[in-house]
């Protein structure tokens, strides 16, 4: 467990030099590949392809099932499997979505999700970069110990805080409020944010900061003009990570969110209890809840992957 | 020069540092650190919180039945889920290396990481639906099953006492009399709903007279039941259908000597020289209940089923991390081994895996921490009736803390146990950072 989580190397090796295409061609004239082993290699390559196609289908089918189900009428859903749409594409309909969107519950819960996710993401980025900067570049007594304390909190499970914080929030009137959910998410996002940003900021060349200091920039100015712009990539990938984390959360919202205007995950969870005869609500609802995360995922794959990698052992 | 500048503003810079740090530290203190202390203290008190019970709440984790199920299931999770996800991730990362569409494949496998556990839960509720006509898992399973075990045509079909057939044990039926060449055989059965008769079934005919050469035994297997009444038992009445597809075996001295399948009108033919003196048997495979697939979300399979959904979500995580590690493995090493005559398996086993060991450990540990806290998937996928069987610590914590029958003592004890289990990782993290900051 001594090795740090791998990071994407700064210069990704996109073109791998001298890596031969699938059937390994003879790399040196002294070891000619026999025809038999070449046939074996080709057969193995074919088997690998078949295996991967099967695995890919295995990974796609569940989501495809949800997507197709969401476009089928309740009676079709009750009567047959979603794969029937390949035989009868005419049964596809958008009526589930129009019904769902005209009913305020789901649209309202999507709005609640946004109202929780956006502040919780921004707050983590803001407070995290403040603290990350302080740990990287400001001098104060016990700095390294404080930082170790934050690192220790990286793996604390949210479950530890559910009961105590609900009591605490109850006492100060934050229980079942959006602000309460935002604060909880922020607190549990902070250790990772501080850890990631402190490490990233620490790589900023000292000369750059000294030069700005000599120019008379105060710490605040230094932070906004030098550190934040240079920290862009790390802040972006942290932001995406935190955004998805909060958007997708159910447990914390289940306990702390206002039960009158719950976020989409909780609203759908309440429907799951009657699973079976409400697939026409659940399938399009789940798909709507996935649209934003999927868009973020496809738009920022690279940042997401590096955020996930940095977050290993969280 | 910068040194003096800094010392001059020392008091000031402390204030600045405090300004930068305070908001974050206050939140962490109030919402992360304080709750740890609260949970530890609360876990030592009883349900009402007024009397000190020592470690009783922790003991309940091993003595109380439903808590023990949660602990046991968590262990199953801990052993199975990270290992399977990591193995698949390793497999995919290595195999996609040389495939041109490897990136597309990786995207497909990685995608579930972006969606919520709730959405994944709903997706898999659909997958695991019991009815093979609706749940894709059972549709595939039943399809495979029926390819290997032939589908049975006539569940619950049986002879009447007046019929020339009798039960032979194990669900099969045999003729009461032996077959004689030249005598047509009647095989009447009842008990098949008209709607469940095979589509190709046609009205049956009286058994034809044996052929002139006398080298065959002929017979008719039919549903001896006329809708609306009026049929006579043991007689092929006009509207009665042949038991199309019924399998018939001729048995002599315990050995099958010939086989036949009833045609659409129920007629069948057997070679006389072999079946003369044998009895006819209708094997049990004709009467098996229709196979309905596996009860994925029933008590015994629910935990593996939910673990399947988890692996679907997290194999991509393992794949991406291992893929990044793989990119750092020196190509020359692999090529050198290949030139030396090592086959791909040896290269993988002896070079790739050892070089990847540190990454594999990181992936496994991360997944284990994650699995410890698994909640949403179980909560969403396990139907209410199976939640006791699928119970895990995080779910039990939620129930103990916020359920109708809340016991905050037990809830807090579970929270502390979860924390204790991640302490070793916390220690490793701290050691690593101390080494790095000292440098």
UniProtKB/TrEMBL annotation, chain A:
Residues 18-29 have a biased composition (Pro residues). Pfam families: BPD_transp_1. Residues 1-17 have a biased composition (Low complexity). GO terms for cellular component: plasma membrane. It is a multi-pass membrane protein. The keyword Transmembrane helix applies. The chain crosses the membrane at residues 47-68, 110-138, 145-165, 177-201, 222-247, 281-300. Belongs to the binding-protein-dependent transport system permease family. This is Sugar ABC transporter permease. It comes from Streptomyces gardneri.
TrEMBL record, chain B:
Its main location: membrane. GO terms for biological process: transmembrane transport. Residues 71-429 form the ABC transmembrane type-1 domain. The keyword Protein transport does not apply. It is a multi-pass membrane protein. The chain crosses the membrane at residues 15-37, 75-95, 107-128, 309-330, 351-372, 408-430. PROSITE patterns: ABC_TM1. The keyword Membrane applies. Belongs to the binding-protein-dependent transport system permease family. This is ABC transporter permease. It comes from Streptomyces gardneri.
